[in-house]
Amino acid sequence: MISFTTISLILLAYMLGSIPSAVWIGKMMYNIDVRDYGSGNAGATNTFRVLGKKAGFPVLFIDIFKGFLAVKLVWLTSKYYPNTQQFMNLELCLAMAALIGHIYPLFAGFRGGKGVATLLGILCAVHLGAAGICAGIFTISLLLTHYVSVSSLLAALSFPASVMFIYHESIPSLNIFAIFVCILVFITHQKNIERLLKNEESKVGFLSKKSN
């Protein structure tokens, strides 16, 4: 039976994920809701695109940190021992709650972002080695293709590959989570994939955009 503490931690992880940094920073700094512009997403990429570096970097760092912190809430309970399957299962539940919170944020009318930055923080907390490989592939892909979407998709593919074939992780729930994360990224990037196939996807330009 799920304990009250576990339920409380999962709800707290969801609320952390629900912090709509892009929306709040956009409104506080520019009186703009970033969801009304660009891709319509409340995430770091759209914030860079719409508002520039001055707003984009804080959103990026907050989204990464909230994902990382949500998973680390596991240390608030002494019910499970680290490096056990039960401990990992709770970490993954917290990870999913935070990710759902970012995509469907309680504090922003359930209209959030795609969760890539938050997912990076989550992956760093769950499996730092595989997360490092994902980050490396994302960076290299971005430098070569200039497409954030392509880089995100390749990084998503690399996570289950790294977990299962490089680190040979034996915990079933971690392998399932890795595959689920990959599928979720592809689902949330469906429109981007359609634009890529039509050669209509925008290349990265916001990183060189002057701060407002």
In brief:
By secondary structure, the protein is an all-alpha fold. The chain contains 10 helices and no strands. It has one domain.
Give structural notes.
- With 212 residues, the protein is mainly α.
- It has one domain.
- The protein is built from 10 helices and no strands.
- α2 (21-30) runs antiparallel to α4 (53-72) and α8 runs antiparallel to α9.
- The longest helix is centred in the N-terminal third of the chain and has 20 residues, at 53-72.
- The protein starts with a helix and ends in a 15-residue tail after the last helix.
- Residues 206-212 have low confidence and may be disordered.
Shape: globular
Number of domains: 1
Order of H and E elements: HHHHHHHHHH
What's the mean pLDDT score?
93
Q: In percent, how helical is the residue content?
A: 55-70%
| Rg measurement, Å | 17 Å
Query: Low-confidence parts lasting 5 or more residues at pLDDT below 50?
Result: 206-212
Q: Total helix count?
A: 10
List its salient traits:
mainly alpha; 10 helices; 212 residues
Walk me through the topology.
Layout: H1 4-17, H2 21-30, H3 44-51, H4 53-72, H5 85-103, H6 116-126, H7 128-145, H8 148-166, H9 172-188, H10 190-197
Helix pairs in contact: 1-4, 1-5, 2-4, 3-4, 4-5, 4-6, 5-6, 6-7, 7-8, 8-9
